[in-house]
Design brief:
This protein is an alpha/beta fold and 154 residues long. It is built from six helices and six strands, in the order E-H-H-E-H-H-E-H-E-E-E-H. The protein has one domain: 3-Layer(aba) Sandwich (Rossmann fold), CATH 3.40.50.
Length: 154
C-alpha cells in the first residue's frame, strides 16, 4: 500500500504570509488552493493559540469557529518546545503511522520535509515536491537565531 501524504500547515505562517497583520481570509483562500492543487493529500492545520489575538475582532470569532469545527488544531498551553515542538511531534506521529509528511511553516523542524509556498498574482502555489529537510544541528541553530514574530502589546 502506497503511503499517503500529510500536509502540515502552520496557520500563523500562512495567515501572515507577506503581510503586516494576520488574515484568516488569506489562510482560508490559501487552503482552498491547496485542496484544489492536491486533492489526494490529507491536511492538518496547526496553530499557535496566540494567532487568535493577532486577528481582527471579526476574524477572531471565525477562528474560534474553525477550532470548534476541528478545521484548525491549536498547540496546547505549555506544549513542550512550544508550537514548533507540537508541529514536530505531529510530523513524527504521522510518519510513524506511515504517512509522508510535508510541512509549510517558517519554523525550524528537525527531520521534517519543508514545502515551499508562494502567491502568484492571487493564486497560492503549494510545492510538495521541492522540499528540503533540516538536519538536527541546522534546525537547532535556526531555532535559536531566527527572529520570531511576537505579539504586540495592546
Amino acid at each position: 500500500m502506497a503511503a499517503s501524504t500529510l500536509v502540515l500547515v502552520d496557520a500563523g505562517m500562512v495567515a501572515g504570509f507577506r503581510r503586516a497583520t494576520l488574515s484568516l481570509a488569506q489562510l482560508h483562500q490559501a487552503l482552498v488552493h491547496l485542496y484544489r492543487q492536491h486533492p489526494d493529500v490529507k491536511v492538518a492545520v496547526l496553530a499557535d493559540p496566540s494567532v487568535k489575538w493577532d486577528l481582527t475582532g471579526g476574524e477572531q470569532a471565525a477562528f474560534e469557529g474553525d477550532i470548534v469545527a476541528q478545521a484548525v488544531v491549536c498547540a496546547p498551553a505549555g506544549a513542550l518546545e512550544g508550537t514548533a515542538g507540537f508541529l514536530e511531534r505531529a510530523a513524527q506521529r504521522a510518519t510513524t503511522l506511515g504517512d509522508d509528511v510535508v510541512a509549510f511553516t517558517d519554523r525550524a523542524l528537525t527531520g521534517v520535509a519543508l514545502g515551499r509556498l508562494r502567491n502568484d498574482g492571487g493564486r497560492w502555489l503549494w510545492d510538495l515536491d521541492g522540499t528540503r529537510t533540516l538536519e538536527p544541528d541546522v534546525a537547532a541553530a535556526a531555532a535559536t537565531t531566527s527572529p520570531r514574530r511576537r505579539r504586540r502589546s495592546r
